[in-house]
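FORM 7B: Structural annotation worksheet

SECTION A. Query
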Amino acid sequence: MKMKHNKKRNTAFIFEALIRELTKAIVAKDNKKKKLIVKLVRENFKGSSALAKDLELYKAVLDTRDLDRHTAEKLIFEARMRKKIIDERELFVEQTEIIDKINTLISSDVFSNFIPNYRDIATVYQIFDYRTKTKQRVLMESQIINRMISSKEESLPSIKPIDNLTYKTFVNKFNEKYGSELLSEQKSLLTHYIGSFTDNGLELKVYLNEEISRLKNKLTQAMNLSEIKEDSEMFKGTKKVMEILDSCAEKPIDNKMVQEILKIQNLVKEIEN
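SECTION B. Predicted structure
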């Protein structure tokens, strides 16, 4: 009998559901809710918490691509071993606390938010759960491994999350190399992307949601300009760019998405000039 997935006890689901709610708050310009969610995430997913440790293991499996099969198997095995070290009671208490806060301070509707990779999140939950039958777990691990060994285009291979020890040095070198070439908004995006490892990408997600909203507003204004409105190709191209921005909400933040946003930032600047 297949074990039922309890999404409210799935740390990765809780985190992603909150990020979706944060996106909705930003789009709705609900600054009060935005600040509340950011505070909730920061306080409950801080580095020393069981929730943060648990989320890190989910991300290690869910966010990894382009591995060989042996390495993927080793990564899952290591993640499962580290999962056993996390204090179950402590994790349960922290999950209960954040669930109560979500229900009380925001809304229980948060748990109904659409999560694009929900199936993968649920699968990893069951791989981590010791109650999952051996055969079932092996089959699910195979499914996730196939996902981890799939090739992923690395459009910006030099822009990767780095550890705390080299963060400042990296940023300084990055600014020296690109400081005179990039727009201020492009440098801001890349700086957020480089530092996204420090808070599970929270600041990056907040920044990106606001930046995408800004770019969409600029493009909407541009589509009303006579130069674009009267040129069918330019109008069609601008509309296509809007579709790319809309699709970002359903995609994971990776190198390819960052490169797309960088190009669109440059396009918007050219239109403004």
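SECTION C. Observations
The chain has two domains: 7-148, 164-272. The longest helix spans residues 202-222.

SECTION D. Sign-off
Analyst initials: ____
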